[in-house]
Amino acid sequence: MSDQKSMQTSLGKVRGLGSARKGVSHWWMQRLSAMGMIPLVIYMVIALVTVIGDDYTNAVAWLQSPLNATAMLLLFGAGFYHASLGLQVIIEDYVSNESRRLMAMVVVKLSMTGLAALSMFSVLSIALA
Asked: Lesser CB count within 10 Å: N end or C end of the chain?
């Protein structure tokens, strides 16, 4: 060991507790998904405002456009991924019981994946009809 002062306590050194080195990548992915959603949300708000009040056939025709369908798919993918990351942080911070934390994480991940798949399937079924 070097002569440098360590911020880690003696008990922490013995137990081997410390950074898992995973928090930074999680933080970056949350920021990147948020930044990716900014132009998508702006585009979708503007696009959806233009079709408000149209009939069903015009709304379906709007979603059948490749640009609109792709933007919607990207928004759903990034949105559910971002929500999953945010809920993971909340669960890790506020659920102290390890078995409950694991169960909550499984429920959140499965729910977000299922909702993303359902949303994307719905867009694709309209866009490819």
From this structure: N
120 neighbors 76 (Cβ within 8 angstroms): yes
Q: Kindly list the structural domains of the chain, giving each domain's residue range(s) and its CATH number in brackets, ordered by start.
A: 10-127 (1.20.1300.10)
Virtual torsion, Cα 94, 96, 100, 104, nearest 10 deg: 20
Mean pLDDT of the chain: 88
